[in-house]
Amino acid sequence: MTYQFDFASLLPYWRDFAAGVWLTLQLSAVATVLGFVGGALCAIARADGPPWLKRLVGAYVEVIRNTPLLVQIFLVYFGIAVLGLRVDATMAAVLALVVNVVAYTCEIMRAGIESIHKAQIEAGECLGLNRRQIYWHVVLRPAIERVYPALVSQYVLLMLASSICSQISAEELTAVANRIQSDTFRSFETYIVVGLVYLALSFVVRWAFWGFGLLVFTRRRKLGTAL
Amino acid sequence: MSAVVKLANVHKSFGPLKVLDGVSFEVGRGEVVALIGQSGSGKSTALRCINALETIEEGAIEVCGHAIHAPTLDKRALRLSVGIVFQSYNLFPHLTALQNIMLAPTCVKGITRKEAREIAMDCLTRVGLAEKAEHYPEQLSGGQQQRVAIARSLAMQPQVMLFDEVTSALDPQLTSEVLKVMEDLARGGMTMILVTHEMGFARRVAGTVIYMRQGRVWETLPGRDLDNPRTPELRDFVGSGL
Questions:
Q1: Residues 6+ apart with CB under 8 A from B196
Q2: Averaged pLDDT score across all residues of chain B
Q3: Neighboring chain B residues of A133 at a CB cutoff of 8 Å
Q4: Is the pLDDT of residue A134 over 70?
Q5: What are the φ/ψ torsions at residue A116 (nearest 5 degrees)?
Q6: At what angle do helices B172-187 and B142-154 cross, to 10 degrees?
Q7: Does the CB of A142 have a partner CB in chain B at under 8 Å?
Q8: Which residues of chain A are within 8 Å of residue B76 when distances are taken between CB atoms?
Q9: Each residue's pLDDT tens digit, A46-55
Q10: What structural domains does chain A harbor?
Q11: In chain A, whose CA is at the least distance from the CA of B76?
Q12: What is the largest CA-CA distance in chain A?
């Protein structure tokens, strides 16, 4: 093997890399927050909604879980155009990621909700709590605590999967890399750098979620239970 | 004495199985009534009907002025008057003992957290667990969890307390610490209906014992007379326990 590595020619592009990282983080953060809220609402609808809503959410979840993310992104991107709306690639990317992650969050949360024993809900009712209070204090809080590790995995995956948004030219990290490698002809080096950056991002994101978990789940912190 | 809880000819089935077959009894203010009987005799179901956890098919139940059988029943208002403690404690696992007790007073009655904390600490003291306030359920023994569950009900200042086999999951030592708390409550004038297998406790504390069999009230007698039942069935039942 006589390949001559040349990372130096990538150095002038550090600002572009940084901008790509920033957009990747923004995409992921927005999709995570909206995905969490939307997923929780879908999970509640699927667990406790009227039959038509249960079926609707169920169908949505199955469609999303059984089609590739790339296809979903194209469908959202071109679908918006067909509707006659003008939305830039980044917005379309966020929307597609949200549509995707809501479905996965819904499934994870549903597992959490179903793990709460009926007797807990009964106890809440007997204390006079109303439905909303029961959902929040008795069902969702312990359910989220229970499935938190699965949610974190899903959101790290989401951050990594956001690289696919490069295909609709949303200028996140991978799209930036595609451009740089075609400018410099240093493809291997470019993707080594990008790979390492994603690796670092994953660790940072996991670490952030871990810290957030310790902050929110007081019991885990006090009892030293793994998160 | 006016009745706080009144069941009149209550019928209830689970599918083809008749669980309550014309049950009637009354409980006056400050009275302690024990429901005893074999498993499947309908005593737990009767208790759950009083708190509208089960619906009835026929008859009438009145609790603290609420008509349980009426379609217009406001369940949440009913549950402000009635507290219930379950066999499996059902504490909320992610909250400390104190938070478990404070939850309903702050959410339902809308009192401030400071007041709720005072009430909660007071209730924990009554069940002898003030020093466990910051403990999570999993850090407590079964008996302690059950006492916290009693305190959680007490904090809502109910007029009637229901106990559904609250000591059935506990060993004799833990059972006695829970029974002591219940005895204190009874002495304090709380109206109590308890489903229990603790014959000694029923004899000592219950003013009235109701023996249920095949979904019916088979025999009603004062607790102190539990050793001299009239019906041969209750004699057998009490005898088998001794």
A1: B34, B35, B36, B163, B165, B166, B167, B202
A2: 93
A3: 107-108
A4: yes
A5: -80, 125
A6: 20
A7: yes
A8: 128, 130
A9: 998 999 999 9
A10: 14-223 (1.10.3720.10)
A11: A128
A12: 76
